[in-house]
Design brief:
Length: about 170
């Protein structure tokens, strides 16, 4: 939405991409902070991860806070920072897709529809490649990310070609 709103003001691709990235970061941060409020104040558990002994950012020990039988709970600081970076990258990529499609067909609804569709495909591919959830760059599964990026790039190129053809491009 923020990229679309920025496109109504300017044709500068850098401003449009930055707008989309910042909008996605705000969305992710708001979602994570409200989720943490529910965990902390509603459920009564502190955010912690069982994947590491110390939070890589705050250096807080994690084992004393982990509930028995869980792999952690809430959104630890390192996961929050990783989610913010993911929002930045996802928003920038979505803005690029939206910008390219809008340049071809001038139809905001159709361009947004295809941009969201490409996002969903990439999200599913990355999830299957990583095999479940990932807590951030400290998670041992993070080493699978380069392969996920390659698979998403191939899928985006193929879907992008079809999106351009379907929306009226040549």
């Amino acid at each position: 939405m923020s990229a679309g709103l920025m496109m109504s003001v300017t044709d500068n691709i850098a401003l449009i991409v930055v707008s989309g990235a910042v909008g996605a970061m705000i969305m992710m941060d708001a979602t994570m902070i409200v989720g943490n409020w529910v965990y902390i104040y509603g459920v009564g558990v502190p955010p912690c991860s069982a994947k590491v002994d110390y939070d890589p950012i705050t250096k807080e020990p994690q084992p004393p806070y982990i509930s028995p039988g869980t792999v952690g709970h809430g959104i630890p600081t390192v996961s929050y920072v990783s989610g913010t970076i993911g929002g930045l990258l996802g928003g920038a990529g979505g803005s690029l897709i939206y910008y390219a499609l809008m340049s071809i067909n001038q139809n905001p609804g159709l361009s947004g529809f295809f941009a969201i569709g490409i996002f969903v495909v990439n999200a599913v591919i990355a999830s299957y490649n990583i095999q479940g959830t990932i807590e951030g760059f400290h998670d041992p599964k993070f080493k699978r990310v380069p392969r996920a990026v390659q698979a998403c790039l191939v899928a985006s190129l193929i879907i992008g070609i079809f999106a351009v053809l379907i929306t009226g491009g040549a």
